[in-house]
Design a protein that fits this description.
- This protein is an alpha/beta fold.
- It folds into two domains: about 170 residues, Isopropylmalate Dehydrogenase (3-Layer(aba) Sandwich); about 140 residues, Isopropylmalate Dehydrogenase.
- The protein is about 40% helix and about 20% strand.
- Strand 11 and strand 12 form a beta hairpin.
- It holds the Pfam family Iso_dh.
- This is Isocitrate dehydrogenase.
- Belongs to the isocitrate and isopropylmalate dehydrogenases family.
- It is an enzyme of class 1 (oxidoreductase).
C-alpha cells in the first residue's frame, strides 16, 4: 500500500535532522509519496503566517506527517503552530517512549511510555493577555480524560507488563486534576487494569531514581511535556527522544527537541530523535519489525562510538544518518 507522507522540515536544525529521518522512511517505504509543507518562522517572515488554513488542508491530505521543529516568531498575535495542528487534526494522544539504547551496569534498561493528553490542559490555547494580568484557561474534560485513558490502557495491554497504569496529577492543588484522576481510574477499572495515582512533582523525581518501576504513565498536557523532557536524562538528552501525536484520522511524528537555533547550520545536531520518530511512523503503518530494526541499528552504532558530538562522537548529522541506513541494510 502506498502512503502519502507530509514532510515539514521547519526551522533551526529541522532542515538538518528531518532529511536523515526521511532517508529511513524512503528506505522502507519505497513507493511512498513524499510532499513538503513549509511551516514556521521562515514562512512567517515571507508571508506573515506561520501556518495557514491551506497548510492545514495539505496536512489533512497526508497519511502521516514527519515534522522537524519551528521557531516562535516575534509576533504578539502568534498562534503556536504545534497547538494549531494538534487542535485542527484532533491529535489527542501524544506518545513519548522513554527507552535507553544501552543497558546499565546491572544489565537493566529503561523502557516506559508517557501518554500525554494533547489537546486540553494548560495548552488549551484559551488565553487573555494583558499588561497587568494575563490568564490561561486550564481545560480538563471527562471526555478528553477518558479517551486518553483508553489509549493508555490499550498500551498497557499491548505491552503486557506487570506494572500498574501510573496517573500523574496534582489534585492536592489543582482540583481539575481530580476529574482527570478519577476518570482515568474508572476507565482502567473497566479494562481490568490496576492504577497508581502519583503527584507529578514526586513522580518527576522518582522516575529518575527508580525508572524500572514504571511502564505506562498517563498525564495531562503540560505535565506530560515536562515529565518527558525530564526523562530525557535517562536516555542521553532531548536529542534522543521521539514522539507521536495520534488522533482518530491523522498521525504526526516529531522529535521532542526544539529548533535549537544556536547549533543550526553547524552539521552537529543529533538526528536520533527525528529518526526514532520516523521509526514510530513505521510502527504506526504496521511495520513493527522494521521499526525495531531501526532502533537496534541506532543502538549498535552508538555502542561502537559512532554518534554526534552531544553523545561524545565525531559524526556529523548527515554522516550518522547515512551510516544508519547502511547498518539497517546490512541487518535486513
Amino acid at each position: 500500500m502506498s502512503h502519502r507522507i507530509a514532510v515539514v522540515e521547519g526551522d533551526g536544525i529541522g532542515p538538518e535532522v528531518i532529511p536523515e529521518a526521511r532517508k529511513i522512511l524512503e528506505h522502507f517505504l519505497t513507493d511512498a509519496d513524499f510532499f513538503e509543507v513549509e511551516l514556521g518562522l521562515a514562512k512567517w517572515e515571507k508571508t506573515g503566517s506561520a501556518c495557514s488554513p491551506d497548510d492545514i488542508r495539505e496536512l489533512k491530505g497526508a497519511d502521516a506527517i514527519i515534522f522537524g521543529a519551528v521557531t516562535t516568531p516575534p509576533d504578539p498575535d502568534y498562534r503556536s503552530v504545534l497547538l494549531q495542528i494538534r487542535h485542527e487534526l484532533d491529535l489527542y494522544a501524544n506518545l513519548r517512549p522513554i527507552r535507553s539504547l544501552q543497558s546499565s551496569g546491572d544489565g537493566s534498561s529503561v523502557d516506559m511510555m508517557i501518554v500525554r493528553e494533547n489537546t486540553e490542559g494548560l495548552y488549551s490555547g484559551i488565553e487573555e493577555i494583558g499588561t497587568e494580568r494575563s490568564t490561561t484557561l486550564r481545560v480538563v474534560t471527562k471526555a478528553g480524560s477518558r479517551r486518553i485513558a483508553e489509549k493508555a490502557c490499550s498500551l498497557v495491554l499491548e505491552r503486557d507488563r506487570n506494572h500498574p497504569l501510573v496517573i500523574g496529577y496534582k489534585g492536592n492543588v489543582l482540583k481539575s486534576d481530580l476529574l482527570f484522576r478519577d476518570t482515568c481510574q474508572e476507565t482502567a477499572e473497566a479494562y481490568g487494569i490496576k492504577t497508581q495515582a502519583v503527584f507529578i512533582d514526586a513522580l518527576c523525581l522518582d522516575v529518575l531514581q527508580h525508572p524500572n518501576k514504571y511502564d505506562v504513565i498517563v498525564t495531562t498536557n503540560m505535565f506530560g511535556d515536562i515529565l518527558s523532557d525530564v526523562c530525557g536524562y535517562l536516555t542521553g538528552g532531548l536529542g534522543m527522544l521521539p514522539s507521536a501525536n495520534i488522533g482518530e484520522k491523522y498521525a504526526f511524528f516529531e522529535p521532542v527537541h526544539g529548533s535549537a537555533p544556536d547549533i543550526a547550520g553547524k552539521g552537529i545536531a543529533n538526528p536520533v530523535a527525528a529518526i526514532r520518530s520516523a521509526a514510530m511512523m513505521l510502527e504506526y503503518f504496521g511495520m513493527k519489525d522494521e521499526a525495531c530494526l531501526v532502533e537496534e541499528s541506532i543502538s549498535s552504532l552508538i555502542s561502537r562510538g559512532i554518534s554526534t558530538p552531544d553523545l561524545g562522537g565525531m559524526a556529523s548529522t548527515s554522516e550518522f544518518g547515512s551510516r544508519l541506513v547502511d547498518a539497517v541494510s546490512k541487518k535486513e
